[in-house]
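Extended Data, panel c. Modelled sequence:
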Amino acid sequence: MAVTPSESASVIEKTKSDPDVEAAVRKWKNKRGSLIMVLHEIQNSRGYVPRDVALYLSRELSVPLASIYEALTFYHYFKLEPPGKAVISVCTGTACYLKGSQAVVDEFSREIDCAVGASTEDRMFHLQCVRCVGCCGLAPVAIVNGKTYGRLTPADVKKIVHEWREHFAVET
């Protein structure tokens, strides 16, 4: 992951003009141990942390690039690639697991033809498993872009996927 001086300079200039990244850097730059907080802000605004932003953070926060990637690859929350438009988060906490969330995960994977932790080729969907989302009474639960679906069965998956395909078809 070597970075040439010319690559570094052009990336820094390009990223410096990004208001979200610049605001996060200003907010956290002088606070000790703030790398994770900056990365969270970028992840929340973009859905992932791109390489150019990691390079920029390395320089602006005086943190080695290796340390940034150490954090990005250790925590499952962070993504290095842009996720799909619809992020499908299936709860695999205890209540959901006991009520059949694995079958729901497997059906989502089949329906969108995508492995857990990955995005579809067209970047329409991203499938991930998450720990307890706090809706145990609705187990098993999936959340798609903030919309909660409860008491799911594998038979419900096709309808949910269709709903989001229609949503994005209308949007474009």
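The helical segments are 5-16, 19-28, 35-46, 51-61, 65-74, 94-98, 101-112, 154-171. This feature is highlighted in the accompanying rendering.
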